[in-house]
Amino acid sequence: MELSNRQEKIIEIVKNNGPITGEHIAEQLNLTRATLRPDLAILTMAGFLDARPRVGYFYTGKTGSELLTEKIKKFKVHEYHSIPIVVQESSSVYDAISTIFLEDVGTLFIVDENSCLTGVVSRKDLLRAAIGKQDLSALPVHIIMTRMPNITVCRKEDLLIDVAKNLINKQIDGVPVVKDTPNGLEVVGRVTKTTITNVFVELISSNQI
């Protein structure tokens, strides 16, 4: 977040004199309290200042990078996950290849008739099957998929930063977002490396940092 000269002056005043009321800040800048109200609101919402009723404004002592880190650590999966790309476990490898390229994704989630997760197939899995001498139209995708429980999953309330760490540490392109049902883990979304990239681009483009 890029601060204006006036906002930087406000932070300096609060840093040196806090706790200090909005009226006293305005006096030092030779401005009215109403003029400063938007700046004080922005600095408080951004986390640079803290406000307490009948006491005044405090400087939090946090840098922009620290505030950004705190913000990112609060992001939840449900705020950013996208629609999952799934295929039935009875589908052929040929159909899976067609789907992965038509949808332009790196991973397919394999589900049963209850939309519950049974496996995962990556582009590498499909490429490995394609260079063999098998009839891809006759080969069921469940033959080549990675099966439960050897699949990394996440849930809507998980922290996005934890999912990002899993993507890096396990060197995978994406994970399914699941919810528990009597029939198993129903696939309700996906988080991918592209998801994480989009979050950072959105964060910068919306001028939140």
What's the helix count?
8
Query: Distance between the terminal alpha carbons, to the nearest Å?
Result: 4 Å
Question: In one word, what is the shape?
Answer: elongated
| Proportion of helical residues | 40-55%
Structural class estimated from helices and strands: alpha+beta
Q: Give the SSE order as H and E letters.
A: HHHEEHEHEEHEHEEH
Radius of gyration: 25 Å
Average pLDDT metric: 89
Report the biggest beta sheet as strand number plus sense, adding barrel if it closes. Answer: 4 strands, mixed
- What are the segments in which pLDDT stays under 50 over at least 5 consecutive residues? none
What share of residues are in beta strands?
A: 15-25%
What strand line-up does the widest sheet have? 3-4-5-6
Which assembly state applies to the chains in this document? Answer: single chain
Number of strands: 8
Structure write-up:
The protein is of the alpha+beta class and 209 residues long. It is 41% helix and 20% strand. The protein has 8 helices and 8 strands. The chain has a 4-stranded mixed sheet with strand order 3-4-5-6. It has a two-stranded antiparallel ribbon with strand order 1-2. Helix 5 (93-102) links the parallel strand 3 (86-88) and strand 4 (107-111). Helix 2 (22-29) crosses helix 3 and helix 5 crosses helix 6 (123-130). It is elongated, with a radius of gyration of 25 Å. The model has no long low-confidence stretch (mean pLDDT 89).
